[in-house]
Design brief:
- It is a single chain.
- By secondary structure, the protein is of the alpha/beta class.
- It is built from 18 helices and 18 strands.
- The chain has a 6-stranded mixed beta barrel. A 4-stranded antiparallel β-sheet has the order 12-15-17-13.
- The longest helix is centred in the middle third of the chain and has 17 residues, at 301-317.
- It is globular, with a radius of gyration of 25 Å.
- It starts with 5 loop residues before the first strand and ends in a 12-residue tail after the last strand.
Length: 511
């Protein structure tokens, strides 16, 4: 019997890493097939097939009874023309859900189990609820080290893999949680100026006030096609681009879209996420930065050491040269929190401005020095001095300007948002602690990273003396509603602890 077809309609709704289809309640196909809202359906057109979650609508302005609507993601994935004829069927139940149920029961999964789960997620056979079930089942440290390796390997195989045809391709990654920590924007030009290949593909902020891609976007275009990215890296030896266009370990992006709203951030999933992305980007040598502090992602040294061992085990299994550095995560790095303010700090360091934040400069030099020591021609222990010479001589600034021009320079100024408030010290004393989480939340309330000029500018850091009524930081916002949200949050808690000088836990910043 000839299958009834429907006319395809593009519905301009961003459903963020989930295929969504729209059928009218009066549609004959909807009634005949017995579809239900939120069930999975299979859509076919001109030899292409996709799976999507069904939404049922009653508004002819969205779809008529003779049409099937697709969200932006689903429409692009089907790769068919608007108004073409499509067939709609029930989707098969993903067989790998049996493995997820076994994981919920506490069973240990095999490489084949993880591969089938990841393949089904990549083919959009899982709804967000089913992905959430997998994440919760494998969260809270219930993956052993072999399972983390299996998950990493399966995620790596789910997308494209870049090959730079060079024996040494360097990269760095910070596990996050520290506002203002824009070291990548300094490490890349220093390492590239040394001559090493460092193609840095970064994420945008999801729960933080700025990701590397958000801050770099103040200076240059970050949405690069894979072809342009290759050309830039070949000529400049480095780049600072958004990783979303290259389809590297795409299942990781799909899982993150569910993980973040649920607040799930288990060690095993984090290691699999980071290493699958870095290996897919063609990295052979990787430096991992784990900041430790009372308001950082990792709060205790024992947790940092456990995480380091897990990174090293999985890295060894996947044949990537991996080193882990444990750093001071007790307070924000630099002064600015938010895309424009963080880009300003980076350029001040590159320009050797005497007012540049010293902690951002020093941490970037330590990280860049460790990466430069991956170079077999560099003697161990001399990387820091080489990195410092590249920065002090202006070669790092020159390389950054070359990368900016190659990616597409933007006209920029570092003037922050027009609505501002200087937050004052509540007492006289010494700043003994700054709450990373709270400062990040204030910057987000002020509008960062969506509003590029929004954020927080720190006036005092840990160890600084302050008198009652003196400014400790400024809030900047572009819109009055965001400004009021940030002000209300500060009124509840300012995020600073002011006490006695002897209460400051002093060390050299690297644990």
């Amino acid at each position: 019997m000839h299958k009834q077809t429907l006319k395809l309609r593009r519905v301009a709704i961003d459903t963020y890493h989930e295929n969504v289809a729209y059928l009218h309640r009066e549609c004959e196909v909807y009634r005949a097939e017995g579809f239900q809202a939120l069930s999975k359906i299979k859509i076919s057109a001109n030899g292409s097939k996709i799976l999507a979650v069904l939404n049922v609508v009653d508004d002819d302005a969205i779809v008529t009874p003779l049409e099937l609507g697709l969200s932006e993601q689903a429409y692009h994935q089907l790769n068919a023309d608007d108004q073409c004829q499509v067939c709609v069927d029930h989707a098969e139940y993903p067989a790998s859900m049996d493995a997820v149920r076994r994981k919920i029961s506490g069973e240990r999964l095999t490489l084949e189990d993880f591969t089938s789960i990841v393949d089904d997620i990549a083919e959009s056979r899982y709804s967000k609820m089913e992905m959430a079930a997998f994440l919760v089942a494998s969260g809270q440290n219930s993956l052993d080290r072999d399972e983390v390796y299996f998950l990493t390997r399966a995620m790596l195989q789910s997308g494209q893999r870049l090959n730079w045809a060079e024996p040494l391709v360097a990269d760095k990654h910070c596990i996050g949680g520290i506002p203002g920590n824009r070291t990548s924007m300094l490490v890349v030009p220093i390492v590239a100026a040394h001559g090493m290949l460092i193609p840095k593909t970064s994420s945008r902020a999801i729960t933080s006030p700025a990701g590397t891609a958000d801050s770099m976007e103040i200076l240059a275009t970050v949405n690069l096609t894979p072809g342009k990215l290759h050309d830039i890296v070949r000529k400049q030896r480095g780049c600072l681009a958004w990783g979303g266009t290259a389809r590297l370990a795409p299942v990781d992006d799909m899982l993150i879209s569910v993980e973040r709203p649920l607040g799930i951030d288990s060690q095993g999933q984090m290691v699999a996420s980071i290493l699958s992305k870095k290996l897919a980007a063609g990295s052979t040598h990787l430096l991992i930065d784990i900041p430790v502090g009372p308001t950082a992602k990792v709060r205790h040294m024992r947790q940092a050491l456990s995480l380091r061992k897990l990174f090293e085990f999985v890295g060894d299994q996947l044949n990537i040269h991996l080193e882990v550095i444990i750093t001071d995560g007790r307070q924000p790095i630099g002064r600015g929190i938010g895309p424009t303010l963080e880009a300003r700090d980076v350029m001040m360091v590159l320009e050797n401005n005497p007012k540049a934040p010293e902690d951002l400069r020093q941490k970037s030099l330590v990280l860049a020095g460790r990466i430069i020591e991956f170079d077999p021609d560099v003697r161990g222990g001399s990387g820091y001095a080489i990195a410092r010479d590249i920065l002090d001589s202006g070669r790092a600034l020159e390389k950054m300007n070359d990368i900016i021009r190659a990616q597409g320079a933007r006209s920029f100024d570092f003037t922050p948002g027009m609505h501002s408030l200087e937050v004052k010290a509540s007492r006289t004393g010494t700043v003994t602690a700054i709450d990373n989480l709270h400062m990040a939340k204030i910057a987000r309330m002020a509008g960062a990273p969506i509003d590029k000029k929004a954020g927080v500018d720190l006036i005092r850091k840990t160890g600084d003396a302050v008198s009652k009524g003196e400014g400790i930081y400024r809030i900047h916002a572009e819109f009055i509603s965001d400004f009021e949200f940030a002000k209300n949050l500060v009124a509840q808690k300012d995020g600073y602890t002011i006490g006695n000088e002897e209460d400051v836990n002093r060390h050299d910043g690297f644990l």
